Amino acid sequence: MASQTRQFKVADLLQKIIADLLLRDLKDPRVPLVSVASVEVSRDLSFAKVFISMFGANLGEEDLSKSVLEKLNLAKGFVRHTIAKQASLRIVPELAFVLDRTLERGHELSSLIDAAVHSKNPENPEDAKT
To answer: What is the biggest distance separating any 2 CA atoms in the chain, rounded to whole angstroms?
Structure first.
């Protein structure tokens, strides 16, 4: 088993390599700008979950999100091959691309907070903002 420090170092290395690869080599005009939000690596370094976020798409476009994830999962063999060439890892982790919903969830929570503040003080919205 790898130490937690080793896990973080491998996750950071994978994030850098995959982000660079997405920026330079996996370009598709139908796909919005895709960013690697984070990478989680298993304790034995054999599996990595790659969280991606999309820019240039409306929040909640499920069809586009599924399409992007399908394309990335189809290209994961190429991504692993590139990682093997660029990183000095004994085992290149199996990859799984997952959509990072942090931005969407943050937007939902912000809307809920705004609605709660507005419903508490509906007659004076100026005071609700401060």
So the answer is: 64
